[in-house]
Amino acid sequence: SDSSFNFFAFFFIFFAQVVLYVLMTVGIPGWGFSGWICGLTALKSNKAVGVMMLLCAILFTAQAVMGVIMLKKVHSLYRQTGASFQKAQAEFATGVMSNSAVRQAAANATASAAQGAFAGRQ
After folding, report:
1. Mind listing the pLDDT tens digit for each residue in 29-53?
2. Most buried pick, 22, 24, 80, 85, via CB within 10 A?
3. Long-range CB contacts (< 8 A, 24+ apart) of 8-14?
4. Contacts of 84 (CB under 8 A, 6+ apart)
5. Where are the transmembrane segments (predicted)?
C-alpha cells in the first residue's frame, strides 16, 4: 500500500543502503570494501588486482548514483501522494495501539514498573 508509514520505513531503510553504497564506493582500507581508495592503493603493488578493484569501484559508484536517483524519484512520488511525516507517526501509533500483543506488553511493563516502585518504598 502507499501509506505514509510504509514510505517512511522505505526511506529509512533505503537511505541506510545508499550510505552503505557510498562507503563501498570510497573503499576505506581495512573495512572490506574495494572502492576507489583501495583500488588505487592496490595498483601500486599489483596491476591486475588494482584494475579489478577499480572495476568494482566503478560499479559501486554507479550503484550509489542510481540509489540516489531512485531515492529522489520515490521522494517525489511520496510528495505527490500527500503523505507526510505526521501522517506516518499517526499511522504507526494507530497500528501499534491496535495490536493486542503490543498493548499487553505495555500493560505488563507498566504493572512491573509500578510494582517495583511500590516495593522499593517498603
Report:
1. 999 888 999 999 999 999 999 999 9
2. 24
3. 8/85, 8/88, 10/74, 11/71, 11/74, 11/75, 11/78, 14/67, 14/70, 14/71, 14/74
4. 4
5. 7-28, 48-71
